[in-house]
């Protein structure tokens, strides 16, 4: 019998059956096994102690199980989110007064609370669509740039040499200058673990590569006293569980906290929603972005209250859970309980884990962020989208990850503007023996309607494309045969119209009027028509020249011809469609 949870906060456990534990327990153990190495390694990206990652992997899945809508998604630390977090923390630290104490854990916790607040605020405003501001090509390019930043950031952990420069090439040049200071045992061991990860992946090892590296590294560290031989280890990890505490936000620059939280929120939710939709399709779940905001908001507030950092949907943990057969959020709860046990009972083993092994795990994870297959797919589908993916990659590398977020957003906005700045247009005609109207540019057998030109604009007419639309309509009118007395704009595809667009249509009307051609509009939505009325353009056009459908245009013209004693024909010698706009969507 199904156990019913009526509270909406337990949607991830709705319909839970006790026999699901046969799948959820192994899935939870697998999530913990895969998650522990990254939980220890990822905090290093932001200069945080390893226990903060373990805390995040404990409290975040519990919070998501309580408030998240999905049965299958697993949350946790994410390499890309950690890189944006590191950039945000650096900006906050740089803004502190000289000599002021720096508590990186408190700053990370404050940012986690900020991300959670942004999630809740976006949910209240139903702004789940905000995640779509970072399109898939932009995210793919951005993550490729982030991955290169992560890889370069591991140079000091691989070599034992302190690297002071930032960027992509500067650290490489610095390590070449300091090559005499490289600790070769650390470098060789790190490279060996890096190779072990790829060998495990190539051989499809039943033991996940990161787990294998952690076990082998700890054993070798214990046998050969790596710490005594100069190989850095992670050191002491608090044995107990974290306690609830609020970071001293009042002592931090609130503007930098807000901006940093917004950047982390946008990237983590954007990437998380892409993952949620991907895994939701595989699991037969419909993803509601606004509901996911509640789950992710709670999953970020919890780490903020327990001295940790922001999290996102974890691709690797979710994939492991589904592959083992995880059925509900009970798997996440089992993984949290397993990590609690690891924190208590594996304390001594984890403290001797070599830093170069963590660098190998991070470098491998970073390489996994470079989706070469997706980049090739984008190149094949749309060269322009590929260019924007490269722009996002370049922004993350050249301007730093935090500024790279801004570059990615700007690139998205430019891309959207470009797609809507040049709406497709053309003339509509009839095909003998068939009903309806057809784009004469796509259907050579479509003939124009004698005396009437029906032109479509496929897109909104707004301030940034109004001049282009006005020019296109004027050019189309100039190419019409002399027998045209009616020029009708098919407004069925005009979604939005603003005051600038209204002025552009009025200018077209006036230019046609000077040539003795009547301008009319068909099938315009009520909102756009109301704007034309407020602008006074509707009055200039005349109520009799607004039509509910295109058939009414032809019918009225024929009736007028008959009244005038001039029989009208259904087709004529109107010229074929003029040059079309830039887009290729069908009409």
UniProtKB/TrEMBL annotation:
Annotated TM spans: 27-46, 52-67, 79-99, 105-125, 137-156, 182-200, 207-224, 257-276, 330-349, 355-375, 387-417
Entry-linked Pfam families: STAS, Sulfate_transp
Gene3D superfamilies recorded: STAS domain
Membrane topology: Multi-pass membrane protein
Residues annotated as signal peptide: none
This protein's UniProt keywords: Membrane, Plasmid, Transmembrane, Transmembrane helix
Segments forming domain STAS: 442-557
Organism domain of life: Bacteria
Keyword Membrane: yes
Chain positions covered by the region annotation Disordered: 560-587
InterPro entries per the UniProt record, alphabetical: SLC26A/SulP_dom, SLC26A/SulP_fam, STAS_dom, STAS_dom_sf
CC terms in the record's Gene Ontology section: membrane
Localization in the cell: Membrane
Single Gene Ontology BP annotation: transmembrane transport
Principal location listed in the UniProt entry: membrane
PROSITE patterns assigned: STAS (PS50801)
Entries under CDD domains matching the protein: STAS_SulP_like_sulfate_transporter
Keyword Transit peptide: no
PANTHER family: SULFATE TRANSPORTER
Protein name: SulP family inorganic anion transporter
């Amino acid at each position: 019998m199904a156990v019913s949870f009526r509270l909406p906060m337990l949607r991830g456990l709705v319909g839970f059956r006790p026999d699901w534990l046969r799948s959820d327990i192994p899935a939870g153990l697998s999530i913990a096994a895969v998650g522990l190495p990254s939980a220890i390694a990822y905090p290093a990206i932001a200069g945080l102690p390893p226990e903060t990652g373990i805390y995040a992997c404990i409290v975040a899945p519990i919070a998501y199980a309580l408030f998240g809508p999905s049965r299958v998604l697993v949350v946790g630390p994410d390499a890309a989110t950690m890189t944006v977090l590191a950039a945000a923390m650096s900006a906050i630290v740089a803004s502190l007064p000289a000599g002021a104490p720096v508590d990186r854990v408190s700053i990370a916790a404050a940012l986690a609370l900020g991300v959670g607040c942004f999630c809740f605020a976006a949910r209240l405003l139903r702004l789940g669509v905000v995640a779509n501001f970072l399109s898939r090509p932009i995210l793919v390019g951005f993550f490729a740039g982030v991955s290169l930043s992560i890889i370069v950031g591991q140079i000091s952990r691989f070599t034992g040499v302190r690297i002071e420069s930032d960027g992509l090439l500067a650290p490489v040049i610095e390590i070449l200058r300091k090559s005499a200071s490289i600790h070769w045992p650390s470098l060789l061991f790190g490279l060996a673990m890096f190779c072990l990860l790829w060998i495990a992946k190539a051989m499809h090892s039943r033991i996940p590569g990161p787990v294998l590296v952690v076990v082998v590294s700890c054993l070798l560290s214990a046998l050969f006293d790596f710490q005594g031989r100069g190989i850095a280890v992670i050191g002491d990890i608090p044995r107990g569980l974290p306690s609830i505490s609020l970071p001293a936000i009042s002592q931090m620059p609130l503007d930098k906290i807000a901006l940093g939280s917004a950047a982390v929120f946008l990237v983590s939710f954007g990437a998380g929603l892409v993952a949620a939709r991907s895994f939701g399709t595989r699991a037969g779940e419909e993803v509601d972005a606004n509901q996911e905001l509640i789950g992710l908001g709670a999953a970020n507030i919890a780490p903020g209250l327990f001295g940790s950092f922001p999290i996102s949907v974890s691709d690797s943990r979710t994939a492991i859970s589904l592959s083992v057969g995880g059925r509900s959020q009970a798997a996440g709860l089992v993984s949290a309980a397993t990590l609690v046990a690891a924190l208590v009972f594996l304390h001594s083993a984890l403290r001797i884990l070599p830093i170069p092994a963590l660098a190998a795990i991070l470098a491998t994870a970073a390489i996994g962020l470079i989706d070469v297959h997706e980049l090739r797919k984008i190149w094949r589908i749309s060269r322009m989208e590929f260019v924007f993916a490269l722009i996002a990659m370049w922004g993350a590398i050249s301007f730093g990850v935090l500024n790279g977020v801004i570059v990615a957003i700007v690139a998205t906005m430019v891309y959207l503007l470009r797609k809507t700045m040049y709406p497709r247009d053309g003339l509509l005609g009839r095909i003998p023996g068939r009903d309806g109207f057809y784009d004469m540019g796509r259907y050579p057998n479509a003939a124009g309607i004698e005396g009437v030109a029906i032109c479509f604009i496929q897109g909104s007419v707004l301030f940034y494309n109004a001049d282009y639309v006005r020019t296109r309509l004027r050019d189309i009118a100039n190419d019409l045969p002399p027998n045209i007395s009616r020029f009708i704009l098919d407004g069925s595809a005009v979604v939005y119209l603003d005051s600038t667009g209204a002025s552009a249509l009025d200018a077209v009307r006036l230019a046609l009027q000077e040539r003795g051609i009547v301008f009319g509009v068909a099938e315009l939505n009520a909102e756009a028509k109301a704007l034309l009325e407020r602008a006074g353009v509707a009055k200039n056009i005349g109520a009799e020249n607004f039509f509910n459908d295109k058939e009414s245009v032809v019918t009225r013209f024929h009736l007028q011809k008959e009244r005038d004693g001039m029989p009208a024909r259904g087709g004529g010698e109107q010229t074929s469609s003029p040059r079309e706009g830039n887009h290729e969507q069908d009409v």
